[in-house]
# Entry
Amino acid sequence: MKRGGSLVKAYCIKVPKRLGEKTIKIANRLNLLNKNLKVLRRGDWLLIPITGKPVKEKLDQLIEEINQFEILIQEFPEREGVARSLFDVLEDRLPPHLLAALPHSIDFIGDVAILEIPPELEDYKQLIGETMLQVFKRVRSVLAKSGAISGVYRLRDYELIAGSDNTETIHKEYGCRYYLDPRKVYFSPRLSYEHFRVASQVEEGETVLDMFAGIGPFSILIAKIHDNVTVYAIDINPNAIEYLKRNIRVNNVEGKVIPILGDAREIVESRLRRIADRVIMNLPEKAIEYVNTACLALNLSGGIIHYYEFARGVNAIGKARKRVVEAVKKAGRNVLAVLSERIVKEVAPLKWQIAIDLKVQ
# Structure
């Protein structure tokens, strides 16, 4: 974003006026909306300022939800009295050579902001945290990543660098409300579209198994948008199950989502054999190890598996597809069709989270 006089040059979404309110809500949900700049009207069109050129994942979500738009660069007037950006506030308070190292990727979970502080900015992390509170008025707590996601509960270590030590929050997504504490449970706001994409494919009357349900973003959305479904939601983390039970209540999907504490493999083998029309396997670190369990959960006529994996290097999707198809065969089933395959997000250089939807016989 470049400043020029009283105008700022920025990316924007150009949409017809009739889609303006919807687009603003979607851009805000995707953390794209640039709240420091004013929305412009141009005849029958609105120009909605955004924080930068959308990455493929967010562009796909816009395409999915808005049927007519363009991404343009336009000059916008600034809103008065609003801190423009993290960079703008800190440009006079950090050494110039460190400004380029400021975090560009920030996750907002409810009123909690999560960012990664590079080593060269370690001495300035409290300053960055306090500036986050100043720039993003809705943020109550700022957490810095201090380790990788690890362990059977898929948790990450965080350091509180500003704001309240109470990091329990309410995250809103596609009309659902989720209570959670990111220090106690796994949750990624970057999977928002994936939750919607899968939920939209479910058909009335289906029984769905969410093998690694967490606080319920797949399970609850499925139950919220469909009248006649049953979703078995399993997780091994007791905190996740407690939040899941709470989220089932606040989203009014009691009886449609059945929370189960335990290891998915043991639960399926003991209680849920041959019951599912659809299985969700959002455990990309280890999903390949549970393919036989997913096949055991599918009913005798077969069904759909939504499989997730971390894959590296050239032709990552092809490698992931080959692995899961072979695993299904080893489990005694056949893949009738690969319904879709996509990169969900990049998690490291040349490493991606892959989603593959399979029709299994």
In short: The two ends are 51 Å apart (CA to CA). The first helix runs from residue 20 to 29.
